[in-house]
């Protein structure tokens, strides 16, 4: 996934398009200041002025590509089944990684939490929204944070594993099995078939608490603390 170079584009747009193409064609090793300068028809100082260094350039290119992907993902209307929407989101995430392996590897590089790539931050925000809808429906059996972390860890790990496999020997069922294992671990059945236990009830109430005006700010804060303790890990 990369934009086409055009003489009418700004230097920043040409640099990002050139970086994306080099990344897609040759991986991270193919992206150098000299190669990007030549492909984008700009001087090296322009790259440093706009992006700081090579890592900044790679992060910007990854963010650009991932933003285009997220725009297609967030443009979809949510269905009445938030768990099914999570399945769709998982499949789209894995599909994006397999279609853009070099870009996905840049996004998935281990970093301190304070230095997470912008693309990864954007993806986490979309996931948090999906998880929150499941909590509001009373179908989340763990806290929203724990559910999001598990989906992130499993989804990223599955995608990286599939990327590492030769295309001809990839097992598409691996993603389906991982997805369903995670969904089973974090969600309950439909409320009609499986009434939520205390953890699910606490998570659901925590999700919709901002919608109530019956409590003072102090009372809401205290109730959030109690609900978090119920939904959190046992000690």
TrEMBL record:
Q: Which PROSITE patterns match?
A: HTH_TETR_2
Signal peptide: which range, if any? Answer: none
Q: Which Pfam families match?
A: TetR_N (PF00440)
Q: Does the keyword NAD apply?
A: no
Question: Where does the HTH tetR-type domain start and stop, copy by copy?
Answer: 9-69
Residues within the DNA-binding region(s) = 32-51
Q: What is this protein called?
A: TetR family transcriptional regulator
């Amino acid at each position: 996934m990369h934009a086409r170079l055009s003489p009418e584009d700004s230097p920043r747009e040409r640099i990002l398009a050139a970086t994306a193409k080099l990344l897609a064609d040759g991986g991270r090793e193919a992206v150098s200041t000299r190669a990007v300068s030549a492909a984008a028809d700009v001087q090296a100082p322009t790259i440093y002025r706009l992006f700081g260094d090579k890592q900044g350039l790679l992060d910007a290119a990854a963010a650009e590509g991932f933003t285009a992907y997220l725009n297609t993902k967030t443009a979809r209307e949510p269905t009445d089944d938030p768990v099914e929407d999570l399945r769709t989101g998982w499949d789209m995430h894995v599909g994006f990684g397999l279609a853009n392996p070099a870009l996905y590897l840049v996004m998935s590089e281990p970093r301190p939490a304070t230095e997470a790539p912008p693309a990864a931050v954007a993806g986490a925000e979309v996931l948090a929204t999906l998880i929150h809808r499941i909590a509001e429906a009373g179908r989340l059996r763990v806290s929203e944070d724990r559910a999001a972390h598990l989906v992130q860890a499993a989804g990223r790990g599955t995608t990286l594993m599939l990327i590492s496999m030769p295309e001809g020997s990839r097992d598409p069922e691996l993603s389906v099995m991982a997805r369903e294992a995670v969904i089973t671990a974090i969600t309950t059945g439909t409320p009609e078939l499986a009434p939520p236990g205390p953890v699910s009830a606490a998570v659901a109430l925590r999700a919709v608490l901002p919608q109530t005006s019956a409590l003072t700010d102090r009372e809401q804060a205290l109730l959030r603390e109690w609900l978090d303790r119920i939904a959190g890990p046992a000690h």
